[in-house]
Write a structure and sequence with these properties.
- By secondary structure, the protein is an alpha/beta fold.
- The protein is built from 10 helices and 8 strands.
- The strands form 2 sheets. A 6-stranded parallel β-sheet has the order 5-4-1-6-7-8, with helices on both faces. The protein has a two-stranded antiparallel sheet with strand order 2-3.
- Helix 1 packs across helix 4.
């Protein structure tokens, strides 16, 4: 018999399950320097990431981000490097595996929705969570709008046959909170990720948690 108020959880990936900031920043800086642009401090990438690889490149290029051909070339280089080095500079946040194990024990369905390209989302999950029984994992897919559009989240709910209001949605940015609100899911902001609590609250977070295990109390 299920003992929770929720049936499923949608997890963001970067900044929620995995600390990928160093990896994304290092790869992007390599691309920038290869095209004659200066590197950015790692902290800047907290605000560059979250809306997919192409937007990351546009943000990093700054005033040059409107040059579509330049963006295309930088994006191709970024993806080439990322495919070959995926996971080298990323790490699990402390307590994440214990949280996932606790949720499995409660028979909560686990899903992932990321704006990272789908192939790289799957690769990250395979690398860092080989034994976690995720029910569904989606990155950015052709034909499915990126977050904060709720299409991806609603697709997950429909495939699982679970009402959106029975989902918790865990993320670290306004994009995640806005996605959850638009999908009719319960937004939970994490305070260990890339953004601050003010952004999460102003974007609709219903709960804020300081460490992964706190989620079990909400469930």
């Amino acid at each position: 018999m299920k003992d929770s108020r929720y049936d499923a959880i949608v997890f963001d990936l970067d900044g929620t399950l995995l600390d990928t900031l160093e990896e994304l920043g290092a790869i992007t800086n390599t691309v920038l320097e290869g095209h004659g642009f200066p590197a950015h401090p790692l902290a800047s990438y907290r605000y560059f990431v979250g809306e997919g690889a192409e937007t990351l490149i546009v943000n990093a290029l700054g005033d040059h981000g409107s040059d579509k051909d330049l963006v295309r070339r930088c994006l191709e280089r970024f993806l080439h490097i990322y495919r070959s080095t995926c996971g080298d500079r990323s790490r699990l946040y402390p307590g994440i595996l214990d949280l996932l194990d606790g949720l499995v024990r409660k028979n909560i369905k686990l899903t992932v929705l990321s704006n990272k390209p789908h192939e790289l989302t799957l690769k990250n999950i395979d690398l860092f969570f080989p034994d976690v029984p995720f029910d569904m994992v989606f990155g950015q897919r052709d034909g499915v709008p990126k977050k904060p559009d709720p299409a991806g989240a609603l697709d997950i709910a429909g495939r699982l046959g679970i009402t959106p209001s029975r989902f918790l949605y865990l993320g670290d940015t306004s994009i995640d909170m806005r996605t959850a609100v638009a999908a009719g899911m319960v937004p939970v902001g994490v305070l260990w990720g890339f953004r601050d609590k003010e952004e999460l609250i102003s974007s609709g977070a219903k709960h804020l948690i300081e460490k992964p295990g706190d989620l079990l109390g909400i469930v």
